[in-house]
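Need a sequence for this fold. Nothing fancy.
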């Protein structure tokens, strides 16, 4: 076991437990509205005027339910109950019979964007699965299963998978499907019901046959209706962070199903680092093209968390150097995005091509990424402690 990794993982976990979780349960929660805020401003002030995405409420529900489950933060029951009530009171469409709106103004208690969105729904299913797992909430489990029935009925596409939402969209994307993959796995873990693992398997098949490009070993982002690559520049868009995310998710599915997927995961991981890593800064680019040319030399915080998860998944499977890579990714994450924030427990969202800060806001949506990476680092370190 890498001592470097153990030290980095411990520092990361301490930051999550002692700084981020208390901050976002306090300053990151609008008690008047009964919901989490969309973001913190660079000085740590909560942004109470911006509309909030419903996916942010879902992601924060996940974070605090999982934190309770791990024993990292056990004082969030009231926040979770309030947020669940907020969703039903403000965001539920037709009393929840048609899912949840996409965006609301929390302070005003009104819907800003009424659309049913697949990406949002994936995170609601994830959140409800974890609320059931952490607290035994049967109502949360029922809501998750109802949302699956809803998207099957309203958004299913003849070419496989689901449409972006109940609105016209220029392209179909792999991203909502990736998070549904994650949500189905979480629901399987929470209930033990094989039907949820089977639904994850359907999305895995889409990855194998549509989303993954075996000629270039890349994950494509945008597609036509029939899930062929979208025409033009959109069809060549590649996000290294998503390649890392799929590397981890394929390992998660393989662990549960026994379906061998490392022939994809190892290729995604290697190619993601080859084309996506800025060697000078140690950070991942936001976007490249299918041949590896950099399209966006900016570097957001969240791809680093996905590299941590992917590296640990590969380390578990014996990849040489992967554990040290996980340590390096944690160190870079903390140095460039976490420890430099003006308020302990907040983060820098994006750095520019030369390392300059181009967005110092802390979007609440990023906490989901940070928390899962910390969970994975903790689990790997615990596995070592138990075996040693």
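Here you go.
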């Amino acid at each position: 076991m890498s001592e470097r990794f153990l030290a980095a993982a411990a520092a990361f976990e301490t930051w999550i437990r002692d700084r981020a979780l208390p901050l976002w349960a306090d300053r990151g929660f609008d008690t008047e509205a009964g919901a989490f805020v969309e973001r913190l401003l660079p000085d740590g002030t909560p942004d109470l005027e911006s509309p909030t995405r419903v996916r942010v409420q879902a992601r924060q529900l996940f974070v605090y339910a999982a934190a309770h489950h791990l024993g990292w933060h056990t004082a969030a029951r009231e926040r979770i109950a309030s947020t669940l009530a907020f969703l039903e009171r403000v965001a539920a469409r037709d009393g929840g019979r048609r899912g949840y709106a996409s965006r609301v103004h929390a302070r005003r208690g009104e819907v800003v964007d009424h659309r049913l969105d697949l990406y949002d729904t994936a995170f609601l299913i994830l959140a409800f699965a974890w609320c059931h797992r952490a607290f035994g909430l049967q109502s949360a489990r029922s809501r998750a299963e109802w949302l699956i029935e809803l998207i099957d009925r309203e958004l299913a596409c003849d070419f496989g998978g689901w449409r972006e939402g109940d609105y016209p969209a220029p392209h179909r994307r792999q991203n909502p499907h990736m998070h549904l993959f994650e949500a189905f796995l979480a629901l399987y873990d929470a209930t033990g019901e094989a039907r949820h693992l089977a639904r994850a398997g359907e999305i895995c098949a889409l990855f194998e046959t549509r989303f993954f490009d075996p000629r270039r070993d890349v994950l494509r982002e945008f597609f036509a209706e029939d899930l062929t690559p979208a025409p033009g520049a959109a069809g060549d868009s590649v996000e290294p962070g998503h390649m890392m995310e799929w590397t981890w998710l394929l390992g998660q599915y393989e662990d549960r199903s026994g379906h061998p997927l490392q022939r994809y995961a190892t290729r995604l991981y290697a190619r993601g680092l080859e084309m996506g890593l800025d060697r000078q800064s140690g950070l991942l680019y936001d976007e490249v093209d299918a041949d590896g040319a950099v399209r966006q030399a900016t570097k957001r915080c969240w791809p680093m968390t996905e590299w941590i998860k992917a590296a640990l998944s590969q380390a578990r499977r014996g990849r040489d150097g992967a554990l040290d890579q996980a340590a390096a990714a944690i160190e870079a994450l903390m140095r460039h995005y976490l420890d430099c924030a003006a308020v302990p427990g907040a983060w820098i969202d994006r750095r520019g091509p030369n390392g300059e800060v181009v967005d110092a806001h802390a979007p609440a949506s990023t906490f989901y990424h940070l928390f899962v990476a910390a969970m994975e680092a903790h689990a790997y370190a615990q596995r070592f402690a138990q075996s040693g």
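For context: The chain has one domain: 3-387.
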